[in-house]
Write a structure and sequence with these properties.
Chain lengths: ~110, ~450
């Protein structure tokens, strides 16, 4: 069994972000194939800790990390650093906050 | 009745739809047309708006919505099926409901139409929220602070998301057109199925998938028509435009769109449990969904949304291209902030706020940005917020002048540090609001806070 370093953008057909209400950002990743979805889920490398490090936020701000088999999807919810459209916000719909996730890389069994 | 068909013409009233798609939808003989007309997505502006504010903007907004409403009203009345509009006017307050109802009456008059219209309000009195707060019946929804009576007082308008019950009641009373205030998105689509005794979990889950129009199809579109067909133990979804199709992937993906938890859809009065859900490709354009189950909550809770006025905003947009100016950008911005504090400090910090967004560096992600590089030019957005529009404009003008003429060490471009695309440079942008209530409130009855008024339109 061999492992190689992969990044999420290579495994996914969709990586997107959006508000889930004005106080939460939700990130969806749809994997290209069910087998890849299962491998990533079972590898246990995408966790609150790894996401907190990626986004440089506290682990408490990563609210949910859920693998959703019916859609072969990964769902991540993050506390917004400022509520939608409150003074200082940069992305009212939360639609452009997914990019760091694209380059999340980890070891995966081939 | 073995099956019931619900037509969703567009993601948000005003996004539009091709006439051919609506015609195809009507050829499928739907039992109701339902459309969502608001959301918290664009922010708190519409929730916080005051009568008389935003005149030109609202007139344009009304024209856009009217362009969608006219063919929908005519199609629904001709087919003798209800047209159900929820979260009217962007935010679903009383003035939003009245605005959409006025638009509809205008269309009815021009077209010579007669029908029974239900107006359902969703605005909640501050005194009721404070009373419920005292009783411990208001709790934060997600990562939101506990509510205080002061928050309630500061909120310029509070709405609650109604569940499916007020829509069902209005249909029972013979409404042909329903204009409702703030509503949970699936409710307006689930009302007819629930009234006819179809499974509540399936009805609400179908509503969740239909509420964004053809976004649940491939290629997705917020401006196209989708049909939901509910049966006793499953439902089907299919786009009406032949250039689109629903796939297991597109429908399953939409079932988790904009939701924090993919396994549970939290709705007024209960949760749709999706742990047993299954998606299957029925034809190459139609997907079959089964297994969604409604689990009733022990107490009925509604989601409250409130907005407070923060102040008034003036913005200035400028570009920076000179490499030395880019290298000293943060220094320039900080110097401008300090001079502004000296100049306007006596107003008190709370009475003005200043924000810089640097596009080409971290303008999109702010503190979440992980890249540290900067482009060869950047866009600078200067934003001043103050307690009056005039004060915000004064501050914005002062700030842009400070940056324009700031002399940093080694400066060679001594005529100015900013490239302005516009004259005037400073653009008053109106009131600024913040969502300050996003809480759940226990209620004794799913109907009592959402009064229904029946109006006979065109009956003079």
């Amino acid at each position: 069994m061999t492992e190689s370093t992969v990044c999420l953008a290579d495994l996914a057909s969709v990586i997107r972000s959006k508000n889930a209400g004005p106080f939460v950002l939700t990130l969806d990743v749809f994997f290209k194939e069910r087998e890849i979805f299962r491998k990533v889920r079972d590898a246990g490398v995408i966790t609150k800790a790894s996401l907190a490090e990626l986004y440089r936020v506290s682990e408490d701000d990563i609210l949910e990390v859920t693998f959703f088999e019916p859609a072969e999807a990964l769902k991540i919810s993050i506390k917004r650093w400022v509520s939608s459209a409150a003074p200082g916000d940069t992305d009212v719909f939360g639609a452009q906050q997914h990019v760091p996730l694209m380059s999340l890389s980890f070891e995966l069994e081939k | 009745m073995d099956e019931l068909r619900i037509l969703s013409p567009t993601a948000i009233l005003g996004y539009g739809f091709p006439a051919e798609s609506l015609a195809e939808g009507m050829a499928n003989k739907p039992h109701a047309i339902a459309v969502d007309a608001g959301s918290t997505d664009p922010g708190p502006y519409f929730l916080g708006i005051q009568p008389g504010e935003g005149g030109a903007r609202l007139a344009q907004f009304a024209r856009t919505m009217g362009a969608d409403l006219r063919p929908l009203i005519k199609a629904a009345l001709q087919a003798r099926i209800p047209l159900i509009i929820g979260s009217a006017g962007g935010a679903g307050g009383n003035l939003h409901v009245m605005g959409i109802a006025r638009l509809i009456r205008g269309i009815a008059e021009q077209e010579g139409l007669k029908f029974r219209m239900a107006q359902i309000q969703a605005e909640i009195e501050q005194s009721l929220v404070k009373e419920k707060l005292r009783q411990g019946k208001v709790t934060p929804l997600g990562p939101v602070p506990e509510l205080s009576p002061d928050d309630v007082d500061r909120s310029v308008r509070i709405v609650a998301q109604m569940g499916v019950e007020p829509f069902v009641r209005a249909l029972e009373e013979g409404a042909e057109v329903i204009v409702a205030g703030r509503a949970s998105d699936p409710g307006m689509f689930a009302a007819s199925p629930i009234l006819e005794g179809f499974d509540k979990g399936l009805s609400i889950h179908m509503g969740k998938i239909l509420e964004c129009g053809a976004i649940a199809a491939e290629p997705g579109s917020g401006g196209d028509v989708i049909l939901g067909t509910i049966r006793r133990d499953h439902f089907l979804v299919e786009p009406m435009n032949p250039d689109r199709k629903c796939t297991v992937r597109s429908v399953a993906a939409h079932s988790l769109y904009e939701a924090a938890d993919p396994w549970r859809l939290n709705e007024p009065g209960g949760t749709v449990d999706l742990r047993e859900v299954s998606f299957a490709q029925e034809t190459n354009r139609r997907v079959r969904v089964s297994g969604s189950k409604f689990v009733k909550d022990p107490v009925y809770r509604v989601k409250l949304e409130g907005a407070e006025l923060v102040g008034y905003r003036t913005i200035c947009i400028a570009g920076v291209r000179d490499p030395a100016a880019l290298a000293h950008l943060d220094e320039m911005l900080e110097a401008a902030r300090i001079r502004t504090a000296e100049q306007f400090g006596d107003l008190g910090r709370a009475q003005w706020e200043l924000y810089f967004r640097v596009y080409g560096r971290d303008g999109v992600m702010g503190p979440l940005e992980v890249e540290s590089s900067m482009a060869h030019e950047v866009g600078l957005l200067i934003e001043a917020i103050a307690s009056t529009q005039e004060q915000a404009t004064s501050i914005c003008m002062f700030v842009h002048a400070q940056i324009l003429h700031y002399g940093f060490p080694g400066r060679t471009s001594t005529a100015g540090n900013l490239a302005f695309p516009f004259s005037p440079q400073d653009i008053p942008a109106g009131p600024v609001h913040r969502f300050n209530i996003y809480h759940l409130m226990e209620v004794d009855d799913p109907l009592v806070h959402f009064p229904i008024q029946m109006i006979e339109v065109g009956d003079d």
